[in-house]
Amino acid sequence: MLLEVAGLAVDLPAPGAMQRVVDRISFSLDEGESLGVVGESGSGKTMTALALMALTPEGARVSGSIRFEGRELIGLEDEAMRQLRGDRIAMIFQEPMTALNPLHRVGAQVAEPLMLHRGLDRRDARERAVDLLERVRLADPERAARSYPFELSGGERQRAMIAMAIGCGPRLIIADEPTTALDVTVQARILALIDGLKSESKMAVILVSHDLAVIAGHCDRVIVMYAGVIMESGPVETVLREPRNPYTLALLEARPQAGAPRGARLKTIPGAPPTQREDRSGCPFAGRCALTVPICRTAPPPEVAFGLNHVSRCHRAAEVGAAR
Amino acid sequence: MTLPARFRPRGELNLWLGAALVAALIAAAALSLVWTPYPPTAIDIPHKLAPPSAAHWFGTDALGRDVASQILAGSRISILVGVIAVGIGLAFGILLGLVAAFSKGLVEDGIMKFSDLVFAFPALLLAIMLTSTFGPGVVNAIVAIGVYNVPIIAKLTRATANGVLSREYALAARAAGRGPIAIAVDHVLPNIAPALIVQATIQFAIAILAEAALSYLGLGAQPPETSWGKMLADAQNVLYNAPGLALYPGIAIALSVLGLNLLGDGLRDALDPKLKARS
Amino acid sequence: MTEAPLLEVSALVKTYRLRGAGPFARKSSRPALAGVSFSMEQGRSFGIVGESGSGKSTLARIALALDRPDEGAVRLQGRSLFDMPRRELRAARAHMQMVFQDPYGSLDPRQRVDRIVAEPLAALGGATGAERRARVQASLEAVGLKASDASKHPHEFSGGQRQRIAIARALITRPRLVVADEPVSALDVSVQAQTLNLMSDLEREAGVTFLLISHDLAVVAHICATTAVMFRGRIVELGATDALFANPAHPYTRELIDATPRLDRPTRVQPLTPSNSVSETAEGCPYAPRCAFVRPRCLKEAPLLEAKGDESRKVACWYPLG
Fold first, then answer.
1. pLDDT tens digits for A104-124?
2. Which of A69, A212, C83, C266 is deepest in the core (most CB within 10 A)?
3. Which residues of C touch chain B, with CB atoms under 8 Å apart?
4. Any chain C CB within 8 A of the CB of A142?
5. How far, in Å, CA of B177 to CA of C203, rounded?
6. Band of the pLDDT at A183, cuts 50, 70, 90?
7. Chains with at least 3 CB pairs less than 8 angstroms from chain C
8. CA triplet A234, A236, A242: central angle to 5 degrees?
């Protein structure tokens, strides 16, 4: 197993007590596999990605276990972690305009990890950078390398960021909403690019997104997060075709369906996600869930397996399938 | 929804310490209106250059005047200069800045270039030019310092106003049919106020320093008026006999400037997070 | 039909001059709108689909007279907006309001909700005092918020709730037309659903017709009876939404549909045509460099938006699909 996460929890400082945004989640990822992490705002999906890179904000407390290539990452000294970042594990962010330094040319930024981790000198690193920019299908990579970020389009910047991320041949790429800020046609190409790179180099990918369809098209497995908890996980086909968790089902039903009559009422989820869960007994979705029963509020839902590594955390998981 | 903490620990210290120092300044000025240990201008040659004692807490200067009383009276000038000079800066600066931000194009460029021109003059040189042309004295010093404040406030106003005007709620106000004056009053001013308040406290401190410099050069307060700057100038003459005489006005100026700067920092921390607060 | 269309837009042209275009300016000469015309009927919401650079946001602003076009006209219920004296235009704004994309930026953080929602009334100088309060309350309730929310500030609300406040503000003058520029893009899926339901309800019950601008085809399909697809400042296809998405005639519409991620089938990515094989010509079709079906005529002459066959469908293409 390339990556094994067990009981990962992240607490953030908040007025009063610490606020738990990721609540003891566990998942694993093999070489060359792609995992989708889907959830709405406040689900903890971004914080999970940051925790894997040890990039959580100042004052955050990360507990549990993250084993990468057999090595425990939580509690690793800063220096060791810094050596991993950009080299064995890389991250792509949502907003390439802010993730790239506007004051440096793109080529220099792509070259930076190469100089840092591979010890290349500036000239070699710059040459490699142009190669990388070509590998991410940038038209005229030489010109792109000489450009500043603002001179490139959104899609081009994102490609540049991907080039920066894959430079050292990482084993794992974490992509946090990499295409949300892009046009749909550009998004399709960027996701195809990531797929291509993944199969070329057997890179594992964690794709964080709020868009179920994006995950469906580009991931092998998926975990559905809500209020810091994994509600359902399993192969993408199974989870999205036959969800066994009311939250997953609700997410699927909230999307406008192609072919439905115009103005048909979309199924919504009553209430709002919990901003701060004071008492963590019971299921976070209790109350908003159509299948809520008293036990949902008092006892944390058990993990129910449905074969093929498909797991749902729900007291009434078996009934979700039947209702459909 | 959670509300963010209104004061972060660091900001809070700045705010209260700064507020305390500024309050002390104001209190000194207010007190001096009704009472000082001695009349600040009372000359008493037999007791000149006396060291601090029970009779004269800070001692006396070269003409026997009580230093403590002069410090108190001088605070009045400092506050007067600060308030009026900053007031001039705000009144004209905000107007120019708003006109620039709303007019765009050549008018905006023109106003900003003009501001740059005034700005390019070293402040003190400008003040010296104005006071030597129109004569020395506190009033002229205030005007000179005030003139210098105008471009600073104008540039800040224009920049922050443009920031507000580029936000969608300003566009929404236009879509609702509101005119530029309504938008300026209802949306721009309330949102740029924190930045202006902070800048105003900084300009206040600069005004006090500028007045001290002008008075030191003999272009500010004229005898028998007392100001801290003038006290510094007078102390220079007797530096070997009584070095302490330079200390008191110097410390008074330093504490006032420090207090205002801390207040400005503290206000920035206190006011901004509330504006940027999101659920 | 003797009644004038709700909104009629004719031959809009708008070019933004870029200040100080340096040697790297690639887009300096492209117009934001290169001749856009369409008309909307009362009761039939109209969708505009396009990506960045399509000019859809510029179109939204000009349709509401927040910006002047270089050429062309906009008529609201038959009256030309850019020929009106200012006072008349201000009064006309009662009938056309806007909802913006960013629920965090479109509300003044320093104002209370009641002032925010009542702002269009303030511009008209109509209601005051008790009547104003009553209308604010009615507007808030129409969007599913509580009367007690009127005294709060925007930061006390979530993104979805803020968008409702923005809609309440748009409704307070009882407009016929509401222009919504990406109203749900910044919202979570479940909140999007709530907002879309709200918009459908308002269409039915409050007589509001939406001009909905979005990059999301599913959102547009849910609300709008008619849709126009924009590309680089032009409308390339226009027609009844269902038919348009089921059988696109313009290659760009096809590309958009194929690229939209769907749960039931993998997305089809158009192979990137190498950039130096077909470059954009000034007179040719703007989509030619990207078009999988490009032919010589496409480079020489830009096709006009015309009805081809089915009267209700218009395409700007020499070789429409299907």
1. 899 999 998 888 888 888 899
2. A212
3. 61, 64, 66, 89-90, 93-94, 97-98, 100-102, 104-111, 116, 119-120, 122-124, 155-159, 166, 169
4. no
5. 23
6. confident
7. A, B
8. 80
Give the chain C residue whose CA is nearest to the CA of B189. C110
For residue range A241-278, what is the model confidence (pLDDT) as tens digits? Answer: 889 999 999 998 888 876 677 878 888 888 777 766 66
Model-level pTM? 0.81
- As a dihedral over the C-alpha atoms of residue C122, residue C128, residue C133, residue C137, rounded to 10 degrees, the angle is -50
Across the interface, whether the CB atoms of C155 and B187 are under 8 A apart is answered no
**Sequence-ordered strand ranges (E) for chain C:** 7-14, 33-40, 46-49, 71-76, 79-80, 96-99, 177-181, 209-214, 226-231, 234-240, 306-307, 314-315
Decide if A258 and C241 are in contact by the 8 Å CB cutoff: no
**Long-range contacts formed by A61-64: CB under 8 A, 24+ apart:** A61/A10, A61/A11, A61/A18, A62/A8, A62/A9, A62/A10, A63/A7, A63/A8, A63/A9, A63/A10, A63/A11, A64/A5, A64/A6, A64/A7, A64/A8, A64/A9, A64/A24
pLDDT digit string, tens, across residues C118-131: 999 888 776 778 88
Tell me the CA distances in angstroms from C61 to A148, A163, B184, C21, one per residue in order. 30, 37, 21, 24
Measured between CA atoms, how close is C104 to chain B, in angstroms?
8
Residue A161 CA to residue A155 CA, distance in Å, equals 10
The DSSP 8-state label assigned to residue C32 in this structure reads S
Name the token pair of B15: 């705010």
The H or E element containing residue A305 is strand A303-305
How many of the other CB atoms lie within 10 Å of CB of C79?
14
CB contact under 8 A, A15 and B1: no
Nearest to A183 among C51, C218, C225 (CB): C51
The Cα–Cα gap between C289 and C299 comes to 9
Q: Please tell me whether the peptide bond between B224 and the residue prior to it is cis, using omega within 30 degrees of 0.
A: yes
Q: Does residue A15 sit at the B interface (CB-CB below 8 Å)?
A: yes
Query: Smallest CA–CA separation between B253 and chain C, in Å?
Result: 36
Q: Kindly list the residues from chain C whose CB atom is less than 8 angstroms away from the CB atom of residue B191.
A: 108-110
Query: Which chain B positions have a beta carbon within 8 Å of A275's beta carbon?
Result: 1-2, 279
Residue with tokens 């600069």: B206
- The first and second tokens of residue C166, run together, are 């923005």
Q: Do the bridges between strand A221-226 and strand A34-38 make them parallel or antiparallel, or are there none, so unpaired?
A: parallel
Q: Which residue of C has its CA nearest to A267?
A: C193
Interface B-C, measured as beta-carbon pairs within 8 A, has a size of 78
Q: β-strand C306-307 against C226-231: which pairing, if any?
A: unpaired
Pick the closest to residue B150 from B212, B98, B88 (CA basis): B88
Q: List, in order, residues 6 or more apart from B187 with CB less than 8 Å away.
A: B164, B169, B170, B173, C108, C111
Residue of A nearest to B279 (CA): A275
Q: Comparing C-alpha atoms, which of C275, C271, C297 is closest to residue C284?
A: C297
Domains, in order of start, for chain B: 27-252 (1.10.3720.10)
Chain A residue with CA closest to C274: the answer is A139
Å between A178 CA and nearest CA of chain C: 14
* Tokens, residue C148: 């007690």
Provide the 10 A C-beta neighbour count for residue C197: 18
Chain A residues touching residue C256 (CB < 8 angstroms): 184-185
Question: pLDDT tens, B211-233?
Answer: 888 888 888 777 778 888 888 88
Interface check A185 vs B, CB under 8 A: no
DSSP A132-197: HHHHTT-SSHHHHHHS-GGGS-HHHHHHHHHHHHHTT--SEEEEESTTTTS-HHHHHHHHHHHHHH
Quote ipTM for the complex. Answer: 0.84
